[in-house]
Amino acid sequence: MIIYGRNPVREALRGPREVRRIWATKNAAREPWLSGPDRSSLELLVEPATRIEAMCGSPSHQGVCAEVSSFRYLSGTDLLYVDEPLIVALDQIQDPQNLGAICRAAECAGATGLVLPERRSAAVTAAVCKASAGAVEHLPLARVRNLVDFLAEAKAASLWCYGAQADAASSYEQVDFRGGVVLVLGSEGRGLRPRVAAACDLLVRIPLHGRVASLSVASAAAVLLYAASVQRHSAAE
Amino acid sequence: MIIYGRNPVREALRGPREVRRIWATKNAAREPWLSGPDRSSLELLVEPATRIEAMCGSPSHQGVCAEVSSFRYLSGTDLLYVDEPLIVALDQIQDPQNLGAICRAAECAGATGLVLPERRSAAVTAAVCKASAGAVEHLPLARVRNLVDFLAEAKAASLWCYGAQADAASSYEQVDFRGGVVLVLGSEGRGLRPRVAAACDLLVRIPLHGRVASLSVASAAAVLLYAASVQRHSAAE
Q: Against a cut of 0.90, is the pTM above it?
């Protein structure tokens, strides 16, 4: 697949994917992360911006795109048998911007990985790589056939599943996010599907103090991920 | 100005701006929030989607756009002389998506308002209204000539100014965000300008536990706003 943009290509070079070839404008090709001595084995072709745009199909390429091996998803089980994992599970998030933003926040917060259903969900496209600022190159992502089954498997593995819901009785700041945890987030607008909500151990809300009805799913993810991250890292000290 | 999208138009109807006229597709015009009995005085014109797109200049209109009075900014001083305000100040945030997302998180977290410099900053355009899901209709926004002068004025009014910086010595979760507070965020990539950072009382970081270099500014804003909101609301109980 072709990925584009400075952060996505730079992070792909630092991550596990094979980077087969890079196309860059004359200016971008001079950037230190592309032209340093450890990059001598890289196949780097200088092209005009119009050619790069045509190759990646987006005007957001920032002068660079790359051909990389296809994204390798894990299975849900791969994420569960880590010591006390912190997992984000997304229910029908279809917008690539939202998926990318959540991947970036999850990687920054030190999450173990992220779980996507195979159907009715955005997958890791070049737009998601861009929206994540390249974070998807370092974040284990799993695809599962059925999210409810995955949550059942997580509970059987002694993880706690917390679903975000705007009108839940419990507020997130009262929750103990230490240990093995799955944070479950639903799509903007519709929220969690009832069967997914029912599969959670506890539903939690992020209190709203204004007049609009909800946080964006990407902001909700950042708030919950960092609430969990702070508890888990202060417990470890 | 013309705003577009379901949430932006609905929130404009609930907010202080004058809504002069609404154009909607046949389907959108039937939605309860547009067609209810309390909407009888509304000038609502049914138009095909192509006409609505031409009027608002965006394909993201969701079947509805409206002519509203221009956005009214406050002065920075207006926000300072509220009892213990929680203010977000943005240094050179130029991307309308980021500005909209930060406005939405600020409104949800119960912030008093948001401060933008007059120059080199996004203003409240229709794209920002859309990205904020209409939250800008309920969030006081101030424009200031000079952000450093505003921070000096805030400090003189006994507020504490906290600047977000990736490599700051203090981590945000150790900070007391109660009382009058300004959260200062810089642009994606460049961060706070040195003079703005120097004008803050304390620089705070959000710990990064992954391999990518930074959170998005919208995620950072959500994390800091909710850290402050939780402290302030639990203190009030």
A: yes
